[in-house]
Amino acid sequence: MALLDYGMGNVHSAAKALEAAGAHVTLTADRATIMEADGLVVPGVGSIASCVAGIEAVRGGELIGRRLAGGRPVLGICVGMQVLFETGLEGREETTALGEWPGTVRRLQADVLPHMGWNTVEAGEGSRLFAGIEDERFYFVHSYAATEWLIDPHPRIRQPITTWAEHGERFLAAVENGPLCATQFHPEKSGAAGARLLTNWVGTLGSE
Amino acid sequence: MLTTRVIPCLDVAGGRVVKGVRFQDLADQGDPVELAARYAQQGADELTFLDVTATVEGSDTILEVVERCAEQVFIPLTVGGGVRTVADVSRLLAHGADKVGVNSAAIARPEVVDEISAAFGAQVLVVSLDVLRSADTASGFEVTTHGGRRRTGIDAIAWAAEVDRRGAGELLVNSIDADGTKAGFDLELIAAVRAATGVPVVASGGAGGPEHFAPAVSAGADAVLAASIFHSQQSTIDDVKAAMRAAGVTVR
């Protein structure tokens, strides 16, 4: 398992939580290591703009794209999920993100932000990430999110599974789209439920 | 629906827990990580370490504690005490802290709030306020430093609004008047801060029993923090959550 190293985020817990889920984890930005790994995890905290800049500085966008083209699993966490959309809107700053999915990440409309704490999710039907933990709570800490899923159903491709949560308004809490998965919450900070989710994800590797 | 967080706070000095921790069956009573793991297992929603050894610079032991905690305990960890600069925050985050608490450094130089928020995002920054009731400010609440011993003349409610504007991600509101009384949180203070700001508010100071927590939530707290009630084993996290649940508060 490769954990993308681009200088952002608390990667300690992510690495240790993945190891607890049965993975051998390498924190790296090395191209060959990342391409060969069974799974790539993209962490992220702070702003979308700084995370996109950090990822691009290690050519992470291209590596993610190449892995996905070969059906190789990638998991984005928190801002590591947000960067997968087309655009990030922070104040007046518009960031062109990695664009794996259509749509814009913007500030949630809620009385109190950041959305900070343990919240329930509405797990998508057939979710493998949430198998056995559909009713658990997960730890969120963010002010921005994607509030729309814009990929229309298509008869010839497997339907992406979307999981939603609510804080002021509904937003995407997780997406399972073939080899590309992401969570807006922090599984590595979500206690036993988060550990189970990571174990579920690790369990899907190699089966795509 | 978001739950109200219950957060035990541990005072740490020289890599050991100090002040009034009485868990008889702990193998090592003074190990903060062991105690943190126990609280996490009991259902704590987050943990706070308060480094009471002056400055981050002068105490690398807290970094080792934070690192060990982040490797073993998979719930969010806030670390406060002596944090003055962006470099201090960077060091704590690099060792595994999820959030960092800033108190007197923000009063000495408010720009540090903007700087930390710009560098790492608002979500890492908890600004702590030690608040004293006072006739000298418009709101009747004054910010203090040095654990309440030093007055600043700054209106606590205006200060809360200012640090929110500057980029704080959360406010830890500690009542110096209520602290140690075990008579309950200062509900008027919580309500006043809630009304003046738009970030999560953590209530601190005064918890004497499980029945004291729900009123703090009704007053506007998004999270409740306590130390001695848990360390003395007078109440468990579960006791507190059961009382909150019975009072209609959503908890995990």
TrEMBL record, chain A:
Function: IGPS catalyzes the conversion of PRFAR and glutamine to IGP, AICAR and glutamate. The HisH subunit catalyzes the hydrolysis of glutamine to glutamate and ammonia as part of the synthesis of IGP and AICAR. The resulting ammonia molecule is channeled to the active site of HisF.
Domain of life: Bacteria
UniProt-recorded name of the protein: Imidazole glycerol phosphate synthase subunit HisH
NCBIfam families according to UniProt: IMP_synth_hisH (TIGR01855)
Pathway: Amino-acid biosynthesis; L-histidine biosynthesis; L-histidine from 5-phospho-alpha-D-ribose 1-diphosphate: step 5/9
SUPFAM superfamilies noted in UniProt: Class I glutamine amidotransferase-like (SSF52317)
Keywords: Amino-acid biosynthesis, Glutamine amidotransferase, Histidine biosynthesis, Hydrolase, Lyase
Assembly information from the UniProt record: Heterodimer of HisH and HisF.
Catalytic activity: 5-[(5-phospho-1-deoxy-D-ribulos-1-ylimino)methylamino]-1-(5-phospho-beta-D-ribosyl)imidazole-4-carboxamide + L-glutamine = D-erythro-1-(imidazol-4-yl)glycerol 3-phosphate + 5-amino-1-(5-phospho-beta-D-ribosyl)imidazole-4-carboxamide + L-glutamate + H(+); L-glutamine + H2O = L-glutamate + NH4(+)
InterPro entries per record: Class_I_gatase-like, GATASE, Imidazole-glycPsynth_HisH
Residues in Glutamine amidotransferase domain copies: 3-200
EC numbers on record: 3.5.1.2, 4.3.2.10
UniProtKB/TrEMBL annotation, chain B:
Known pathway: Amino-acid biosynthesis; L-histidine biosynthesis; L-histidine from 5-phospho-alpha-D-ribose 1-diphosphate: step 5/9
InterPro entries reported in the protein's UniProt record: Aldolase_TIM, His_biosynth, HisF, IGPS_HisA/HisF, RibuloseP-bd_barrel
Keyword Lyase: yes
Source superkingdom: Bacteria
Residues at the catalytic site: 11, 130
Location relative to the cell: Cytoplasm
Major enzyme class: lyase
Keywords carried by this UniProt record: Amino-acid biosynthesis, Cytoplasm, Histidine biosynthesis, Lyase
EC number: 4.3.2.10
Catalytic activity from the UniProt record: 5-[(5-phospho-1-deoxy-D-ribulos-1-ylimino)methylamino]-1-(5-phospho-beta-D-ribosyl)imidazole-4-carboxamide + L-glutamine = D-erythro-1-(imidazol-4-yl)glycerol 3-phosphate + 5-amino-1-(5-phospho-beta-D-ribosyl)imidazole-4-carboxamide + L-glutamate + H(+)
Principal location listed in the UniProt entry: cytoplasm
Complex and partners: Heterodimer of HisH and HisF.
Family classification: Belongs to the HisA/HisF family.
Function: IGPS catalyzes the conversion of PRFAR and glutamine to IGP, AICAR and glutamate. The HisF subunit catalyzes the cyclization activity that produces IGP and AICAR from PRFAR using the ammonia provided by the HisH subunit.
Protein name stated in the entry: Imidazole glycerol phosphate synthase subunit HisF
Gene name per UniProt: hisF
